[in-house]
Amino acid sequence: MNNFTFEYPSILILLLLVICIYKCPQTLKQIIFPHIQLFSKKTSLINKEKLLYSLILASMILALASPITYDQKTSSKRKGRDLVFALDTSGSMAESGFDTKNPQKRKFDALRELLKSFITKRFNDNVGVSIFGTYAYPAIPLSYDMNSVAFLLNFFDVGIAGDSTAIGEGLATALKILKKGEAKEKVIILITDGFENSGSISVKEAVKRANKLHVKIYTIGIGDSTTFDANLLKLIAKNTKSKMFAAKNAEALQDVYKEIDKLEPSAIRSKHYLNKQNLYMYPLSLAFLLLLFLAFKQKEEQL
């Protein structure tokens, strides 16, 4: 069974120019359409010149959008990187004031919203999540479905793993998730707002395990700089050849995500179409024939 689609559907927004032929002011039309003289000055209900011009423009835009038919479409099998977030859900994450635009919002809620925005833009990665507080556990296994990961984040909350901060266990759990991945590049993004005060696995041991697996650990301290262990976060990042960030508020955290996105770019997912047939010649031919008709019509009127 044949399917139909456009390879460049965003180009279809140019069809709004067809409406402009009828609705835009004359001064704007002169800017957009250099051959405004082709428009008749008649005010009849059906203006043949405008209709022709509309059909020509619409046909050319449809051709540019590249209509195709295909039997099957598959995403490419190329792997990006395995990316696991180690999220602090200790009691301090319930504090408000982190989001300057909405001071009543809890720190964890602001973190979750920004995290969703970040991961849904990761086109070719596998993303997982580990949660840590007094203890740690694997919350979301590595997944290629970013929308599902974003949805599952809604089910986690402050205190779900206890009120203390076991950073070492959070990292160790993130590493367990990464072991199941097959990508060559493996990254952990640790996000915390406190000092390590719990857990049976030390940060030193967790970093040692990360280096054996060639895993980079980006660390992000959020909130007031006096409330998290900046020296420890710098040491973790340095020993895994990555970088430490500090985000005093939600806006700064958004900038941190942008910086990480540059440091660890996600490849654009490609698509393969089986038995693809290009159809752009049909609307293009129609536009050409209509242009010829319009040209002959204009020449006859001049004679």
What are the salient characteristics of this protein?
303 residues; 11 strands; Rossmann fold; 10 helices; six-stranded mixed sheet; 20% strand; single chain; 40% helix; three-stranded antiparallel sheet; alpha/beta
Write the CATH fold name of the largest domain.
Rossmann fold
Please state the second-level CATH architecture of the largest domain. Answer: 3-Layer(aba) Sandwich
Order of helices and strands: EHHHEEEHEEHHEHEHEHEEH
Provide a count of the helices: 10
Mean pLDDT: 86
CATH top level assignment of the largest domain: Alpha Beta
Helix content: 25-40%
Radius of gyration: 28 Å
Alpha-beta content class: alpha/beta
**Which residues sit in consecutive blocks of at least 5 with pLDDT less than 50?**
none
Strand runs, count: 11
Strand content: 15-25%
Please give the order of strands in the largest beta sheet.
Answer: 6-5-4-7-8-9
CATH superfamily label of the largest domain: von Willebrand factor, type A domain
**Structural shape:** elongated
